[in-house]
Fold these 2 entries.
Entry 1:
Amino acid sequence: MMAETITIGKALNHGLRRSLEHDSKVVIMGEDVGKLGGVFRITDGLQKDFGEDRVIDTPLAEAGIVGTAVGLAIRGYRPVCEIQFDGFVFPAYNQIVAQVAKMFYRSMGKVRLPIVIRIPFGGGIGAVEHHSESPEAYFSHTPGLKVVTCSNPADAYSMIQQAIRSDDPIVFFEPKRRYWEKGEVDLDADLAGAYPLHEARVAREGTDATLIAYGPMVRTCLDAATAAAEDGRNLEVIDLRTLSPVDYDKIYSSVRRTGRAVVVHEAPGNIGLGAELAARITEHCFYSLEAPVLRVTGYDIPYPAARVEEEYLPDLDRVLDAVDRSFGW
Amino acid sequence: MANGESTAGTDAPAGGFVQLLTPDGERIDSVTTADGTTYSVDFTDDEYRELYRDLVTVRRLDAEATALQRQGELGIWASLLGQEAAQVGSGRAMRPQDMAFPTYREHGVLYTRGIDPIMPFGLFRGVDQGGWDANEHRFNGYTIVIGSQTLHATGYAMGVTMDGKTGSPDGEAVIAYFGDGATSQGEVNEAFVWAGVFHAPMVFFCQNNQYAISEPLERQTRIPLYRRAAGYGFPGVRIDGNDVLASFAVTRAALDNARNGQGPTLIEAYTYRMGAHTSSDDPTRYRIASEVESWKAKDPISRLRAFLAKQQLGDDSFFDEVDESAKTLALSLRERVLSMPDPQPISMFDNVYPHGSPELDLQRSQFADYHASFEGSDH
Ligand SMILES: Cc1ncc(C[n+]2csc(CCOP(=O)(O)OP(=O)(O)O)c2C)c(N)n1
């Protein structure tokens, strides 16, 4: 076993490299993914080692990137598309929700689109507008797509490989503010033994309340749980990992034990994933709940100017505040 | 359709371009393109000197912004270094009633519109959304999603036609700015289609600075960009984008054609991005130093300076005075940027809807209460 301490960004890079090695039909395509290695360097060195036909610098056209990926997939390739930033996925939105998501259904199961669409998402990096968005609900709302996100290097490494091997079209959200966060990854690990792609994971065990988060907010919730422990509260943290379909069983069994649930995400709360999770938990755990399911989310505003984004983003204090409210019910 | 295949100038790319001032500062009297159009300028001595002042000022302001970014005072900066002639020439070619739709790099055009150069700094410092009044300044907000503004410009131009403001010399025209990379976007192609079909009073001004972040022009097109126009049914002209005179002459003619009811034109300003794409970019990964060097020899400012000197329109004291006044302006800009206050956090709830929303009012007051609960603590 060769465990290494690497960043999420590097783990994704290794995962992409292994996928390119594993299957000659895997191709990476996107703006600046070649020589530059992508603006976040996630594809660093891959074009040099696999060539311009496997790691394709595309014209500056997102509809083109995803639309041609559809054709390549029909032809037997496994395209991995990089969208440079969350706010630039919308030119490709039509292709993703109207074509990618529906092709299997429309062809009555004849045409599979094993496409992965990688999108760095979320705020916290001090960027200008369109560079810090959380558009996951749009995609999770669309039947036919699977939507996943990772929160640590080990998951980043395995999940990107699993997504590429999956026959489903997958929107793969990468928590960009966590790209530089480090953790242990076993680079030799056999994918067959990896944690299943569509299962949630208990990131921290606890008994008093359940925090449910994904992507960038998992770290925030783990920090909140550490802080709460000092006050004698033992919080469980669940990392959803897959946003569509959600692994509800893991959530229900946790909430039935703890009796309290707080859902945390950066995206605006209105009609967001938190709303769906709260409704489901209420429906399935009603008699176990000591308090209503609470949400901590971004506000219902366009992403604000960088100098106030820390006020927009849920932080440790806001999470603990919600936990307090749950206990005060 | 004549596509305006141009007469070759010094150092022209294959297919040529319109050039009125060579890199050595030689004035070319006039240029006639293959479609029979003749381009020239007729400036007074003072006008030449003022153009020079614009170029120097705009470069100096840009350099100050780059420095501010490096010192951590701006989150990011998109420099116009090398593109001053394309921007100043086309900007000065606009008449007061014309309207511009920029991307995020048009600080030089902004300057020529008489707008306070502080305007874009809120956006890049992260203290506001960069909002200024587009109608008041006849210069729309910066647009970061590539190519979107070309459709906005086309729609605006359709409105000009519907308002009966075309077909005469005092009519209105509209100019949209974008890069070579943007020409690959579906939306830009749709803008071309619409402008052509609706005969909109539009000038599409493409600054072909040879790169879209790391990707060279060949990743966007196999033919010179100006030739694309023919496929949409309007003329395309390529200019030496480092020649402020050509930029002025061709843009002035295209805007006048548009206002006179002759429909759109695509101008490709063939130029070079001397710096990084933005302050977050590392150009050493994708381009070689000798390429940058060869473009330095075509610098837009030094050629106009050489011309002025040769014509005895400017001496050392003039050039020094221009440098000095540009520096003064840049330093006062620096002061003002440094004293831009951080926004009040609660202001992030402003301007989501013109008439507010009950839900948002509630969130705002909850936000205020939550913050008040920390008062006196060290939060
Ligand atoms: C729709 C969209 N996709 C990607 C980006 C990221 N991005 C910002 S600038 C840029 C390159 C733009 O190149 P070009 O159009 O040639 O203009 P330049 O910056 O060179 O002036 C890219 C890919 C974006 N802003 N919008």
Note: Chain B is about 40% helix and 10% strand.
Entry 2:
Amino acid sequence: MSKKIVVPFGPQHPVLPEPLHLDLVVEDEKVKEAIPGVGYIHRGLETLVQKREYPEYVYIAERICGICSFIHGMTYCQGVETMMNVEVPERAEFLRVIWSEYSRMHSHLLWLGLFADSMGFENLFMDAWRLREHVLDDMEATTGGRVIQGSAKVGGVRRDISSEKLDEMVTGLEGIRGELKDMMDVFLLDSSVKSRLRNIGMLSPEDAYELGAVGPTLRGSSVASDVRMNGYAAYDRLHFEPVVEDGCDCYARCAVRAKELFSSIDLIKEAAQKIPDGPIEVKVTGKPEGEYFSRAEQPRGEVIHYVKGNGTKKLARHRVRTPTMANIPPLVKMLEGCEFADVPVITLTIDPCIGCLER
Amino acid sequence: MAYLKKSPWLLHYDASSCNGCDIEVLACLTPLYDVERFGIINTGNPKHADVFVITGGINELNRKVVKNIYEQIPDPKVVVAVGICACSGGVFRECYNMAGGVDQVIPVDVYVPGCAARPESIIDGIVKALGILEEKREEMKEKEKQHGN
Ligand code: SF4
């Protein structure tokens, strides 16, 4: 006779750099149920919106999460700009795309590394992070920050990239494309990796859709949905195709992220070619009034920033719905019935970003 | 600190940071910065750790977790607070769910400022912590001798 027991997972766990707690109800090495427990990083920064003026609040928005920091800042700015009817200069929009895609690359490489680590593939972990440093170098050279860029601003961006630097960046990315390909071959073709990922953590397209999955979790279950298709910032002027995989398992989610790296390189290259000359910011004055739902595609999926102004310098409300929040119900679904030993790998496939989740 | 008597292992816990500092701590372990060459390993088990690296200010739910982990680490041990959040609460100081810096809950030996703290400064902080660790070890030995007699 087997007995049900509850095994706590986290909040401090070697595969998670961040605290996430799961109560796993286990019977015979099989997980019957997973009960997530969150709140270990909750800071309550949404309330700071009432203490800071709206142009200044961008730096709080950027510190929602240190991985997708730039996109958070940008989405917040986008919300305020739309609310105040500010026309952002075209060059700024292209620069936003370039930095967003750089953030995506650094986030995906980071994730691929952690993911390899969760499978016990140390060498691959180191390799992914070695390549990531190249992306971070470009980020640092253009914005001054490695992980927190601080270059988004209400009305545009803070810094410009010269055309020589852009050329250099594109050449650099083309250079690492080959290395990335080699690394992806290990992720996607190696038999030991495949045996850890194939048919594990299944999430059917219906479940993914109904439970509200977003980002690679959704696209790995063959649903083509990506906010970049809506054409915010300068995406409507670039060729963009979402990456979709139909495996519905851990392997498919890994493949989506791996292939998105290449689509990011293409997007940066195209944006660097098409970027127009001109100013990078407009002066924004006045007090915002009204409300707006601003959406953008984070590396982990769709993020929504809701902003509400009340005619003063300080906003009345700021609410964020982050991709990890949306992906928790699908995660619980994936964990049901899985092997106990697969829990770390499956948990990582949604790329949990607890900093975002709890703010 | 002429040489290290022991490979110092570190335990990293995120006590409500934004992730920025966490990934920089991890970056220290990877090829560009590579602290593993000094015998420093990131461990998940508090009983194996000598250096406790904390990022982020402490929030209410984390108070007891941090205390619990701290108490499980055997003596001598050192605590390194990484990032301005861990030093003083940083930009989130006014948030309702923050205790402030790590030193509100456990004693801190080394403060590493920065937002996000750069890997270079994190390594500096850890090297400084290793010196303190060595001192603490000597002190412990002294005490043991006195008690032995
Ligand atoms: S110091 Fe900055 S980067 Fe580090 S956790 Fe705090 S806000 Fe994030």
Note: DSSP finds twelve helices and eight strands in chain A.
